[in-house]
């Protein structure tokens, strides 16, 4: 599905529980760093379909800025995935075990579509690679903000981690033939749960 055919998602901007305005769950463009500038994504990048380029569930890519801390899908266990109630540092560290840029072509567009669907109807990506890629992308974005995601932004990150844990527990580790996979709609009661407060994230590098 092309972006032009997607309904416009409501803006997730707004105050958090403390009354502080937080940034939108997802910006128009990719995060700063790694040679990428902030701002609207180029039209060509938006039109290019996201594609999973690394499909080996047993061995992670050896390239990328986070290769040293990479954990392959097949090496995950439910206990290795952060659960709601853990602090931000644990989620922060887990997100970096999957370098979305090393796995995906056009990661920003994959993440943009995922958060637009979640904002619109609460659905999440249906494959482990998509979930981990989106979690990685959001971690990098909040790292550059220098803040802990709270409110709806925090709820989204924890929803991604919870669904990763669910798929790992089911043994659904392999990539589907379609990189887009299927969508999953979590329990509405879980989506309404806020993120636990945690310490300010340490700079990963």
Account of the 3D structure:
The chain is mostly helical and 205 residues long. The chain has one domain. It has helices spanning 43-47, 88-95, 100-103, 107-121, 128-145, 151-170, 188-191, and strands spanning 14-15, 21-22, 51-52, 104-105, 124-125, 183-184. Helix 4 crosses helix 5 and helix 5 packs antiparallel against helix 6 (151-170). The chain is globular and about 35 Å long.
What is the count of distinct domains? 1
Q: Determine the mean pLDDT.
A: 75
C-alpha geometry: globular
Number-wise, the strands total 6
- Low-confidence blocks of residues: 1-40, 177-205
Which percent range describes the beta-strand content?
5-15%
Sum up the structure in keywords.
205 residues, mainly alpha, 6% strand, disordered N terminus, disordered C terminus
Indicate the topology:
Elements: E1 14-15, E2 21-22, H1 43-47, E3 51-52, H2 88-95, H3 100-103, E4 104-105, H4 107-121, E5 124-125, H5 128-145, H6 151-170, E6 183-184, H7 188-191
Antiparallel strand pairs: 1-2, 3-4, 5-6
Helix pairs in contact: 4-5, 5-6
In brief:
This protein is mainly α. It has seven helices and six strands.
């Amino acid at each position: 599905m092309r972006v032009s055919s997607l309904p416009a998602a409501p803006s997730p901007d707004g105050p958090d529980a403390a009354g502080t305005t937080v940034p939108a769950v997802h910006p128009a463009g990719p995060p700063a760093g790694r040679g990428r500038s902030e701002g609207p994504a180029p039209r060509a990048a938006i039109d290019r379909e996201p594609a999973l380029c690394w499909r080996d569930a047993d061995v992670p890519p050896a390239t990328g800025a986070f290769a040293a801390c990479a954990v392959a899908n097949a090496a995950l266990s439910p206990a290795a995935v952060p659960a709601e109630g853990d602090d931000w540092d644990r989620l922060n560290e887990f997100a970096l075990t999957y370098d979305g840029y090393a796995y995906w072509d056009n990661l920003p567009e994959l993440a943009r579509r995922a958060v637009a669907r979640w904002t619109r109807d609460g659905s999440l990506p249906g494959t482990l690679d998509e979930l981990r890629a989106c979690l990685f992308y959001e971690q990098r974005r909040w790292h550059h903000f220098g803040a802990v995601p709270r409110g709806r932004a925090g709820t989204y990150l924890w929803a991604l981690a919870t669904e990763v844990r669910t798929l790992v527990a089911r043994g659904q580790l392999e990539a589907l033939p379609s990189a887009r996979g299927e969508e999953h709609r979590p329990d509405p009661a879980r989506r309404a749960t806020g993120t636990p407060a945690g310490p300010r994230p340490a700079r990963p590098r």
